[in-house]
Request: fold
Amino acid sequence: MTQETKYETLRRALVEIIDSRMAPHDPLPSERELMQQYGVSRMTVRQAVEGLVRDGRVYRIQGSGTFVTERGKITKSLTFSSFTEDIRARRMTPGSKLLLLEVQPAEIDVARDLFLEPGSPVVHVRRLRTADSEPMCLENAWVPEEFAAALARGRDVDSLYDVLEAAGAAPEHADQIISATVVNREQAELLGVPNNFPALRVSRVTHDARGRAVERAISLYRADRYDYRVSIARSR
Ligand code: GLP
Reply:
């Protein structure tokens, strides 16, 4: 039997507390309280809470905290895909041009999202993504260093998700923010559009089935070529 990690132990303990003592919409204790109570690091707390969010057991409200989900409301409504799958579904041929593949010290926000200490080594993958050979998206992804060798073997890293899946870390759940932006001069040149051209910015933090953060990525899509499509059910 593989040994349970600290985060798995904490996650199990939190599920027990939620089931036995908490009501829907009750707030979870703060990160600091959980760190003190269980003698674990902030990273372990974040990873455990992320696991609960992924399972739909708790939900987050930005700036307010994390709350217990109402039982009947646990849904997994939206799905996500890789660039490769997404472009194929649009009946175009995906492509990838590797611009950078480098191990770097993690900046604060990358470290936070990947549950690492700032300055820990991470792999930065920068790619220009094409659809039918035309630039579609400029993608920066940071992944934990343990995948460096697998990525280096993946030649041009045609599909990051294929590499992660082959390494036993298949993307399962993601938190995503979509916003509108304009491209700067360097991005414009790579994407083949004028400076200040509009773009869709998709920021994604992706986790595997064990709740490990496996990717933090920012994708800039050309607004003239890409639209974001979702199938949604009415909430009642
Ligand atoms: C989308 C996501 C990225 C992810 C990429 C993986 O574009 N926004 O966060 O890195 O898919 O796609 P692929 O497996 O084709 O490299």
About this structure: The chain has eight helices and eight strands. Residues 83-222 form a domain with the Chorismate lyase fold (CATH 3.40.1410.10).
